[in-house]
Amino acid sequence: MAVPAPNALKADPEYRAAVIDLLGVLAYGELTAFERIAADGAMSPTIDDKIALAALASGKYAHFTRLGDRLREMGVRVEDAMEPFKRPLDEFHAYTAPSDWLEGMVKAYVGDGIGADFYLEVSNYVDTQTQAIVQAVCGDASASAFIVDRVRGAIQDDPRCAGRLALWGRRLVGEALSQAQRVAADRDALSTLLVGGVDRPGADLAEIGRMLARMTENHTRRMSSLGLAA
Amino acid sequence: MAVPAPNALKADPEYRAAVIDLLGVLAYGELTAFERIAADGAMSPTIDDKIALAALASGKYAHFTRLGDRLREMGVRVEDAMEPFKRPLDEFHAYTAPSDWLEGMVKAYVGDGIGADFYLEVSNYVDTQTQAIVQAVCGDASASAFIVDRVRGAIQDDPRCAGRLALWGRRLVGEALSQAQRVAADRDALSTLLVGGVDRPGADLAEIGRMLARMTENHTRRMSSLGLAA
Questions:
Q1: A8-225, which class in CATH?
Q2: How far is CA B127 from CA A3, A129, B15, B190, in A?
Q3: pLDDT in tens, B160-184
Q4: In the prediction, which pLDDT does A2 show?
Q5: Which residues contact A97 (CB under 8 A, 6 or more apart)?
Q6: Is the Cβ–Cβ distance between A64 and A30 less than 8 Å?
Q7: CB-CB contact of A65 with A81 (8 Å)
Q8: pLDDT digits 0-9 by tens, B113-129
Q9: A39 touches chain B (CB under 8 A)
Q10: Most buried of the four, A26, A38, A84, A145, by CB within 10 Å?
Q11: CA angle (A132 as vertex; A126, A138 as ends), nearest 5
Q12: Do A38 and B51 touch (CB under 8 A)?
């Protein structure tokens, strides 16, 4: 595994551009997760759920401001860093608009979980400073227990909804992959974080294969913790 | 103007119940304002607007946690204190669901403004500790400049929308008054904060008249700062 030299952010403009992309896509992801989870709160059946989701959304906003602060330190406006990712992420959310509260919960856990896994994998290939912030943002699993509890409870009350939610989980993965491919094709610098650049060796095909295997396992584990087939 | 004795929270159970009601209705108002403004963010035309609204929503969440902390100090669960106000506030929001982003902005400024004015008036009749928290929550005008700027800009771009938004402002006031009357009728303790209780003189009719006049003036001033007729 190839880790960039500590001075790579200064010495390697392509690497710096890639890190700005990484922080930008994460920032837009957290900002829209904030909006989405707060809206799920408004659909919540109970006041307790509203409070739990507001706390969760507020954590996403804290991630967003942290990413924005780091970009500002690097001399970049967060608005500018996010701009290239607005369209693919908006499209992902438009194609995967939950039709009810439960679908929103599965999306917040399973959809955001795949994204977080991916960026945690990428964080193995970046400088330690960037790594720390990516791991803090993507390693925050504070949502999990609450959502697992609510989705399992709903399936217990009405076992028929398990089939619909399992299909929904598969659709989330499919849409996420198709938008990720588009981003990878559009943003060369970002892709080179994983596969390497001119002076920077990255993951080889075998490593990428293992990474996809790990992501698939984690996804299956998340679905099954909800009581759903992956 | 009659201010309760510093020990009223301990000595007067009716007064204590009224303060719990006051903090509960404010907490539910801030929690739903949080959800609403975050959802407005998702409808925002630009990334800059999204960021501004996320910051605003996040401030509402901070108010909510502050009110919840104070209720906990008083030995009350915020969930329980909010419960009586869920239905009237949910109905208010259902009857005044904005049909677009601009209506959402006017609601966040004009609708929340009337509510804040009312609670600031009530805060003249409570103990200093309760007063401090009500004034911190309701005196926060951080939203104003951003919203005024955006709504004025929209009217400049398309003057025809001024008529529709002026009507919308009037509807917000009408619905707010009709829900407020219901709350006043259902929650005796809360009403006595203003009009007084057995051992606690409150506002007389002349004072209430002046209060309504001040609220009307503030509302008119807010509408006109948006470029709208009240």
A1: mainly alpha
A2: 60, 49, 10, 14
A3: 999 999 999 999 999 988 888 888 8
A4: 60
A5: none
A6: yes
A7: no
A8: 999 999 999 999 999 99
A9: yes
A10: A38
A11: 95
A12: no
